[in-house]
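step: validate -> pass
step: tokenize input -> pass
step: predict -> running
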Amino acid sequence: MLWLSSATLWAINNEQEQQFLYYFYAAVNAIDNEQYDKALILLDFCEQIHPQDGTTKDYLGAIYNAMGNTSRAQKYFRQAYECAPQDCWQRYTELLLQNAQNVNDSVNTKVQKRNLKTARSVLEKTVQLLPKNEDAWNMLLNAYTQSQQWKKALTAQDHIDRIVGYNTYSALTRYRIYMAWQKPKEAIQAIDDYLQYDPREYRFLLFKGDLMVQARQYVEAFVTFATIGDSLANIEQIDGAYLAYEKALELYPEHPYVLNNYAYLLATHNGDLKRAEWMSQKTIQTDPNNPIYLDTYAWILYLQGQQSLAAFYARKALEYAEDDTQREEIVEHLRQINEP
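step: predict -> pass
step: emit ->
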């Protein structure tokens, strides 16, 4: 997108200024066509005409960055920012943060720290100039998290919330900050706070279960995952239910309750019938007289075209049915199984 900094917007009233705009727009067109050598020559003319124009230097930085010359790109981005701090901060800080992430070896730790410090400084000045700029605050949040300045990161998220409102991304960011900060209680609280705002957001329920696993609260985590799976299945959030049941089975792989409910969900939502049959079979091996497990197994067999075997298990389920509600459901399944 073409834009000019405030320093560029002077009256076009003489030949030199018209030349500047001619070269500038020709350079932008060359950049769009990836003719970088041509664009460099044109922007060099622009820089000679108006050496303090931030946009010219910003585009020079963009070209060198596209060509892989990051050191020269950073030099021009810095100069662009110095000429027009309100307009030319974004590419400069993006490159600083990118360079800080890409530097991993201990030899260059000083370079990484210097890039992060510079990015933070520029972004802190930018949000003072542009206090309602969401992009600037998000980049500052990124800089703080890279620097492990967790309190400042949370403060930056507070500012973002004031601009765009509290939402899923806000809660997720807070959860991740607290987890990186090794504060699981606060992470759980961030989840609970959001669940009061949107109790159907299953991802946060799953996060809570994951935190319980990390705390070695395996039974509590299992119950949480199983309950989430049932709740999501009831409201037809099938993918979420699958994920919750999978997490529950990671903790207790042969728990018949979860195996049965998961198997039935797979069978009734075009899932893997072979896997559903295997899981359902495990439940009746564990509890052979359970009418719910027998009915699930019968229905899965029926869906695979095994009518006679399905009818056998459905009649067996009916034999062990404990109340009228169970009997009615099993009778309906048996009627469909026996239909010609």
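step: describe -> The CA atoms of residues 116 and 275 lie 50 Å apart.
step: cleanup -> pass
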